[in-house]
Amino acid sequence: MRTSTTIGIGVGLGIGAAAALGFTVGGFFYASRWPASQIFGRTLIAPRLPGELALTFDDGPNPACTPRLLDVLARHSVRATFFLIGDFAQQEPALARSIAEAGHTIGNHSWSHPNLSLVSSRRIREELARTKYTLEQITGSPVRLFRPPFGARRPYVLQTARELGMTPVMWNAMTSDWSELSPDLIAAKLMNKIGINHRAGFASNIVLHDGGHQALNTDRGPSIGAAERLLACYAPRQKFVTLDVWPD
After folding, report:
1. Are residues 162 and 224 in the same domain?
2. Is 109 a catalytic residue?
3. Are 24 and 68 in a shared domain?
4. What is the pLDDT along the chain (248 residues), one digit of tens a residue?
5. For the chain, what is the domain count?
6. Has 209 been annotated as catalytic?
7. Are residues 117 and 190 in the same domain?
8. Torsion over CA of 24, 27, 32 and 37, rounded to 10 degrees?
9. CA distance 88 to 61
10. Are residues 4 and 93 in the same domain?
């Protein structure tokens, strides 16, 4: 028969094991999803250049919204960075090409937008390599930037991106623009983050979405409206850059 001391030790060990497991799971989630984490490998976020802003757009090309966004950027003479989904670019090659021809930088956002921290190594390489090849065939220019869908990564994701000649990119200014209906609220939240970055001495790597990863023709009107407000506020007095000018 077990004594109360034995039972107590067993319970203590069980609690300790559970705590260790919780720490491990929590640590993996932080390393794989938190934008600032560098535990799994180096990523480009933003340099110590508080006067610079980089507008980036994920999940395009999207025929429902990307053309309007291109017009907005052109009116302000600002170039941005577009992280395109390979499958959508293959379906809309003329639109993907028009982004590049307008002087914007094209980045790789995987072929089908999976959570790359959870899929097989083989699929990771296929997602990144197929997208890079497709985008380069469409635009005629090398693709040197990669942003993981959801920001999800593990060491092999970042290793593969670099082996393919791409710099992994995260961000330091994002809000839930994909679910927010108010352009003013999206812009206000981003302005707050930009202010925090500026006071800390950093540039801002801003994420908005001109598409939806589940399907083409997703309505991203609020996000485009928020981009217009950011440009109206900052373009006259701060420098907008594309991510390829920042050091890795």
Report:
1. yes
2. no
3. no
4. 444 444 444 444 444 443 333 435 556 556 787 888 899 999 999 999 999 999 999 999 999 999 999 999 999 999 999 999 999 999 999 999 999 999 999 999 999 999 999 999 999 999 999 999 999 999 999 999 999 999 999 999 999 999 999 999 999 999 999 999 999 999 999 999 999 999 999 999 999 999 999 999 999 999 999 999 999 999 999 999 999 999 98
5. 2
6. yes
7. yes
8. -160
9. 6
10. no
In a domain, 45, yes or no: no
Residues 12 and 58 in one domain: no
In a domain, 179, yes or no: yes
User: Are 26 and 56 in a shared domain?
Assistant: no
Q: What is d(CA 44, CA 129) in angstroms, rounded to the nearest whole number?
A: 20
CB 177 within 8 A of CB 223: yes
Q: How far is CA 150 from CA 81, 123, 134, 147, 240, in A?
A: 17, 16, 21, 9, 24
**Domain extent for 17:** 1-33
Token duo for residue 1? 């028969």
> Catalytic: which of 104, 109, 113, 209?
209
